[in-house]
């Protein structure tokens, strides 16, 4: 329902406009069950599991990252990310490896 309202208000290009950014974050937050932009960004990056996205984001924040998007945290916080991924199924390390090589 929220997607229909967003499309009505902002049209087809609504996701790309600043005026609809808050609604887009709210919509993804409801859809994914995630609390903020950083975890949504992590989920969208390829870690499509709520628990994994939240764990990764909690660790990069604990390591001093204050940004809103996950990709800029990769290089400076790679060791912390690798520590978290080592505790998870190897699929998630493969996701990171696949994205890093592209």
Largest sheet: none
Helix content: 55-70%
Mean pLDDT: 88
Number of strands: 0
Following the backbone from N to C, one meets helices and strands in this order, namely HHHHHH
What is the secondary structure topology, with strand pairs?
Layout: H1 2-10, H2 21-32, H3 37-45, H4 50-62, H5 78-86, H6 90-101
Helix pairs in contact: 3-4, 4-5
Describe the 3D structure.
With 102 residues, the protein is mostly helical. It has two domains: 2-32, no CATH class; 37-101, no CATH class. It has six helices and no strands. The protein has helices spanning 2-10, 21-32, 37-45, 50-62, 78-86, 90-101. α3 (37-45) crosses α4 (50-62) and α4 crosses α5 (78-86). The model has no long low-confidence stretch (mean pLDDT 88).
List keywords for this structure.
6 helices; single chain; mainly alpha; 63% helix; 102 residues; elongated
Write a concise synopsis of the structure shown:
This protein has about 100 residues and is mainly alpha-helical. The chain has helices spanning about 1-10, 20-30, 35-45, 50-60, 80-85, 90-100. It has 2 domains: about 1-30, no CATH class; about 35-100, no CATH class.
């Amino acid at each position: 329902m929220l997607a229909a309202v967003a499309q009505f208000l902002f049209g087809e290009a609504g996701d790309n406009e600043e005026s609809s950014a808050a609604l887009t974050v709210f919509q993804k937050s409801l859809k994914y069950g995630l609390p903020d932009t950083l975890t949504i960004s992590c989920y969208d990056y390829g870690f499509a599991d709520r628990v994994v996205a939240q764990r990764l984001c909690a660790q990069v924040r604990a390591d001093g990252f204050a940004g809103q998007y996950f990709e800029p945290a990769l290089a400076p916080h790679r060791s912390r990310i690798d520590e978290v991924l080592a505790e998870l199924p190897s699929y998630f390390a493969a996701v990171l490896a696949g994205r890093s090589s592209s």
